[in-house]
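Retro notes
What went well: the complex prediction finally ran end to end.
Inputs used:
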Amino acid sequence: MIFNMPECGGCKTCELACSFYHSGKFSLIMSSMKIKRKKNERGFLVEFIDKKEGSIPPCDGCKKLDEPFCLQYCHKKEILRKMIKEFINNKTDSK
Amino acid sequence: MNNDDLYLYAGKILRINLSDGKISIESTLKYAKDWIGSSGIAIKILYDEIKPWVTPYAPANKLIFASGALVGTTAPGANKMNVSTLGPMTGGWASGCSDSYVGGNLKFAGYDLLIIEGRAHLPVYLSIYDDQIKIKDASRLWGKTTWDTLEKLRKDYGNPELHIISIGPAGENLARGACIVQDKNRAFGRCGTGSVMGSKNLKAIVVQGTGQIKIAKPKEFMELVRNLRGNFKKGIVFEKMQKHTSLNAFLSKQQSCGIQFKNFQECIVPEEWVEKIDPRKTIEKYEISQQSFPGCPYGGCGKHLYLTEGPYAGLQAENNQYEVFNTLQARLAIKEPTFMIKANALCNQLGLDVDAAGGAIGWAMECFEKNIIDERDTDGLKLNWGDSGVVLELIRKIAYREGFGDLLAEGNAKAANILGRNSSYYALNIKGQDLYETCRGALGWALGAITSTRGGGHTTGATVAEFWPTSVLEKSKSIYGISNPNTPLEYNGKAEMVTFMETLHRISNCLGICHYTTTWYDAEFSDLPDLTRLYSLATGWDNTVEEFKYKAMKQLNLEKAFNLIHTNFNRNDDMPADRELNEPIPSGNLAGWKFDKEKLNKMLDEYYELHGWNKKNSFPTKKTLLNLGLENVAEDLKKIGKLG
């Protein structure tokens, strides 16, 4: 599921944090979120992985934590929080 | 210890010889404990492997890319990659850092450092994907700008997220001030590393990696990262940086006479220009989004801008840092506020360092003003102050070494030597490299710039804390251990401040930490003990602040020795440029202030004493080198008569 995030600066710290949540290590391929470039438009795209793709785990909204791990490293955390909520709700609804 | 027990580091150094295609791997562990990472390991390798007879463009020179040790983690500001080599501007140590995604990718591919040796017979680029290393034909890329190179490679790889480093025409044509560019808008500036890459026929490097970085004490590490990130909002500059990036410095530089208007003839822009030229307003007007790099606690010191009007309408680029405003816009007296964005974009496209461009063009414009050169020298161009079109044309000519640009591509110091006609006075430089730093009226800033081992620059010792407000005085005193850190015009105490900052800058570079996130920039940001703790938790090796200081001084002494072997530098080369040394500040708040030569020399004496260097010639003493475990260096310097 892909969200448009015009406010994102593209630092990708959330990706690193996400991989750390899943694997206890930093690794670009262990992140269940991807920050993607847009062409000539404001901000970035945020993609949440909903099904396991190879080694990439699906995003579960960090259900074991009070607050999703990526949010703890995002400057626009409230916007990201809404996206995760929508993603998780959507995932639950489609089951 | 084998690499399975290794934390934080990727563990390997990749060595590629472009002359014979040989690829080899060695362990980072050979160097990591003594030299920490990045620029520290790089100078050790350069010192050991570059013989005294090697020249910058010789195949025997080596170009070393390195990720800072903390790069690839969430540590605040951990995104810097370094490139080091024997440089063509000063003839000595050349080193520059850049914000980067490539640095992280290099570590995820399994490598902390990448050493480029030899020279390819034809233009090539490197493709690194974990352990698949390919030297590929770059004939279709040669001649392209860095922006076109990126687009072409993204298309070829079918990956719009691909990150690369590349050179532009300036590097290919061996303009001495050529730089290396990451993607489109971030450069390994200064020192001419791009021309060394060009001399090796290496156009670009693509790095992708699927590996991982392990942390020795993950829970404590992440907790410290979160705590440190929480501190940033307390910083005085935090909101200013978020809003206006480093261009926030404009008014304070204007008030403290830190602007190099008309090639340092004035130290402010004319007051009637301030309203129109204010770069903060320019980025507010044209910002379309932020740009930041991994770990950035600001959410970005970059802004994507889209110029919707004016002479450069249609240009979309990331904003320049403050330096470009000073070195190209103010130095060349250009009033059009969007010029800095256009000039920065053009320099990045051509792969030309902005300061090398500003330094050479500033010298040429003043020579033209003073009738030292005329249109017969300049291919018919009238080099009048403020002529933006002429400046853009000169930038292009430098990159292609075309006509008059061939002379300017030498950098102002060498160009003045070639031209003669008593033009050297207007070629403001330190150790042969075009000077950016305005040294008058800021003594800690000046001392760091003039003694810098890379030839000028404010990221190897210069301090900005002398301008911090009194509200952080106590904190500042505790950082620097002196009673008067907030007195830019006092000579006393500056040697201590610069010595501390030499350490902080080096440790930050070795760890890959952005200087804008440390106590170099703001008293509330990460300090040396914080960086030490981050590194210790990540590696599992208990390092103390004192050990870090020792290692930083060891690195500095090796940089110094590398310079002594490859150049003729001595104390005379640790002095401000002649204009700065001899002329008073002509106008502004510090009108009439000039260097007191006796006090300046005393400050230098104190600086050398603190370092254990001989005051007469600036050379390290045997005792100093032995204390740092550099016995071999002491022997080397003794052989060439340069032991202090």
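What we learned: Chain A has a mean pLDDT of 90.
What to try next: split runs per interface for comparison.
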